[in-house]
Amino acid sequence: MRTPLIAGNWKMYKTRKEAFAFVDALKDLLATFDPKRVEGWICAPYLALVGLPEALAGTSVRVGAQNVHQDKEGAHTGEVSLAMLSEVGVEAVILGHSERRADCGETDRAVAEKTEAVLLAGLTPIVCVGETLEQREGGQTAALIAAQVSAVVEHLTRADAPEELASKLARLVFAYEPIWAIGTGKTASVADASTVITGIRATLTRGLGSRAEAVRILYGGSVKPDNLGAFLAERDIDGALVGGASLAPDSFAALLTVAVEASAS
Ligand SMILES: O=C[C@H](O)COP(=O)(O)O
């Protein structure tokens, strides 16, 4: 049984002051219910990460970043390493978000290398895949998503991959985020999201065999507390990657509440 996961992606929102005010308010809200049956993650901007895990201590909400460099260290101006993230208590990293693929030219290859580095460092990668509206209307969704997922799986299972990688693959998380649904208020239909996510699991099974069953696959794109339940009711949808609706403490707590209720039903 896969533990439901609600990951908030704050993107480039919240100063440190705003981030810590969010945590204070969230802790008050979480005092009234126990979201233990689900995992809640806040993926904050780098500067807000410092001190955030400590501020969330005593809750079941953990902290993630939104990107990392794949190298251990080096001459990479402006980049942040996994050791730097681990040192401040970060446990997960969003990789290959469509905004980074578009704004920063992140390739499937770079996303695959980052995924390997995150797994080897003992953190959880949340690997984003998704199609544009043009690609969807052109009937390319299934092939494109399969190619994005396969690029990661083939890299992780290549013949000369580090041996210890195999035992870490169950920690993989994928997020299917149709680009046209991000921040637009237009979600994919539950049926369409479910079809794509079932396809992702099939691609994972081809590459990973039975280990694919443990991999969690999230839906992302205009998820709100009032539409989350319908996605979570689908067998292969294990949670959500949420942007806008993760920015307010009451809305993030409401997402966790919906996930707890869905996991109980
Ligand atoms: O990473 C999160 C996604 O880009 C979804 O953002 P959104 O919930 O604001 O549509």
From TrEMBL:
CDD domains: TIM. Substrate binds at N9, W10, K11, G183, S222, G243, G244. SUPFAM superfamilies: Triosephosphate isomerase (TIM). Pfam families: TIM. It is an enzyme of class 5 (isomerase). Gene3D superfamilies: Aldolase class I (3.20.20.70). Its EC number is 5.3.1.1. The keyword Cytoplasm applies. Pathway: Carbohydrate biosynthesis; gluconeogenesis; Carbohydrate degradation; glycolysis; D-glyceraldehyde 3-phosphate from glycerone phosphate: step 1/1. Keywords: Cytoplasm, Gluconeogenesis, Glycolysis, Isomerase. GO terms for molecular function: triose-phosphate isomerase activity. The active site is at H97 (electrophile), E177 (proton acceptor). GO terms for cellular component: cytosol. It catalyses: D-glyceraldehyde 3-phosphate = dihydroxyacetone phosphate. One of its GO terms (biological process) is glycerol catabolic process. The keyword Hydrolase does not apply. Involved in the gluconeogenesis. Catalyzes stereospecifically the conversion of dihydroxyacetone phosphate (DHAP) to D-glyceraldehyde-3-phosphate (G3P). Belongs to the triosephosphate isomerase family. Homodimer. This is Triosephosphate isomerase.
